[in-house]
Amino acid sequence: MTNQQTVPHGIMFHHFHDERHVNGQGTISAKQLEQIIEYYGDRLLPAKEWFSKAKANCLAEKDVCLTFDDALLCQYDIALPVLEKYSLTAFWFVYSSVLAGGIEKLEVYRKFRTVCFSSIDQFYNDFFSTLEETEYQDMVAKSLENYSHENWSNFPFYTKHDTKFRFIRDTTLGVERYNKVMDVMIKKHNIDITDFSSDLWMSVDNINTLADKNHIIGLHSHTHPTQLSMLSVQEQENEYRKNFDFLREALGQSPKTVSHPCNSYSTDTFSILRNLKIEIGFRANMENHLFSEYEFPREDHANIIRRIEQ
Ligand SMILES: [Zn+2]
């Protein structure tokens, strides 16, 4: 067992696939979730037990919990029945704009990449070539001088195209310019966004069902900014306050936990979370450093799958 596995931590899940929810980059099946659950065996604790032990600072090194980010319907449809088969409960970190009827483009774009292109590299090629038709062409070329695939060693499952795409999206373009490029691409495909996004997110009923079944629903911001720590303190406060108020209203109880969207947070974020009386939080990596109550480590399911399949 490596050093990494001997701290109490969460396992972080995102997308699942079956007949209804499309098989794409980073998705796993119900069967693979079962393999992960069996791999960890009795190290896995129900969410409420893990939470109590974390608060009391008495988690054992081996203690692991399951976490699901982003309020995705595929998690509810595919992962929940598996958890029930094993009598397990989990943390579900919910960004609330999508439960309030909003659409967040990050997820729409992800589905677009998955269903409209035969491979992710075909998408990247289209994206990189669309970029060259835009006014951002020079800006991108210049910024790539600072790009290095090696900087992403914490995410060993990313290919060079993955990291280059993420670098351009997050560092060079930023949200607005990136969205413009993607909207140009989507327009070419004649997609109706409302219809296209109807199977992406859970409903308020779904999260109530989870809470009734002893799962823990936690914060994940309101609109899921990709770089929350770059926002002003006031904007960060709005993100978490709206998220908190929405979930408290929907569930009839105050959320006590958080996971940081895109692992982005600052000391200002911690002050905001303390004001909301959030008790524990999760980051999105297993880096070996001292951490606060808002930085419990998490292992990405992709790393575990690779370990199991080796
Ligand atoms: Zn997220």
The total domain count is: 2
| Class from secondary-structure proportions | alpha/beta
Q: What ranges have pLDDT less than 50 throughout 5 or more consecutive residues?
A: none
Helix and strand element order: EHHEHEHHHHHHEHEHEEH
In which order are the strands of the major sheet placed? 4-3-2-1-7
Termini gap: 14 Å
Q: What is the total tally of β strands?
A: 7
Which CATH architecture of the largest domain? Alpha-Beta Barrel
Radius of gyration (Å): 19 Å
Major beta sheet summary: 5 strands, parallel
Number of helices: 12
Classified in CATH, the superfamily of the largest domain is Glycoside hydrolase/deacetylase
Keywords: Signal
Pfam families: Polysacc_deac_1 (PF01522)
Subcellular location: Secreted
Protein name: Polysaccharide deacetylase
Would you give an account of this structure?
With 310 residues, the protein is an alpha/beta fold. It has 2 domains: 3-102 and 200-309, Alpha-Beta Barrel (TIM Barrel), CATH 3.20.20.370; 117-190, no CATH class. The chain has 12 helices and 7 strands. The chain has helices at 30-40, 47-55, 73-85, 105-115, 120-132, 137-143, 160-188, 193-196, 204-212, 233-251, 267-275, 301-309; strands at residues 9-13, 64-69, 91-94, 216-219, 257-259, 280-282, 298-300. A 5-stranded parallel β-sheet has the order 4-3-2-1-7. The protein has a two-stranded parallel ribbon with strand order 5-6. Helix 1 (30-40) packs across helix 12 and helix 10 packs parallel to helix 11 (267-275). The two termini are 14 Å apart. The model has no long low-confidence stretch (mean pLDDT 93). Residues 69-70, 220, 224, 261 line the site of zinc ion. Its main location: secreted. GO terms for molecular function: hydrolase activity, acting on carbon-nitrogen (but not peptide) bonds.
